[in-house]
Amino acid sequence: MINTFAQIDYLASAGRSPWHRASAISKLALTLLFVLLAVFTPSWGTLLGLLVTTLVLCFTAMLPPALIGAAASTPILFSAIFVFAHWKGDWDEPLILLMRPMVASLTAVWLVGTTPYPDLFAPISRVLPRVVGDSLFLTYRAVFALLARMERLWKALFLRGGMTGSPVRRVGMMGEAVGTVVLSGFDRSHRLYQTMLLRGHSGRICGCRHYLAGTREDWWVAAIAVWAIVLAFVFHAWRPE
Predict the structure, then answer these.
(1) Mean pLDDT throughout 91-108?
(2) What is the number of domains present in the chain?
């Protein structure tokens, strides 16, 4: 898990595709449009077109095929239950139920894989309460530190024989390990907050506004948005009553 998060974080910051150079606000708007279309469109043709479009977006963003495959296949496991529950002998509704989460998942992976997290959380923090926005921003970075510490602690327990013996002893050791990580997280948060105060924290985290700065690549994002809207109208007009 930590490797996947770290890989996405690295791709978002080190990518060189046109989508990485587009502004965060335009990519957030495109993601919202795709998610809304995926949720509300009644046409499997529209969903199929959106699915192909999101795959093209992910591959042109140079995202790893393994990451794209995981984003496309994971929702199928959860939606399969609803497919069997709503099976009526035709293929339209099962295809819709399968493709809805796939489109949303691939679009989200494209967004986080092409947008550095400060640019991603800065516009979100403007519409959320200050405490919620700042907490999300700090929690994103804290996840990496806590998962890395948990991974190192887990390896140390195995190497030193901490996971041997009776089940009761192993459960006790796991509880102590989790408690150690939690206490370490509180201590790290306290030190981080004190450091922020010393460096002039003014009560607002991630105050950057360059996510609003438009680029030439935003025209490509706008073109994809127009394509998605046209696709939805065309298939809605051709949809039989």
Answers:
(1) 83
(2) 2
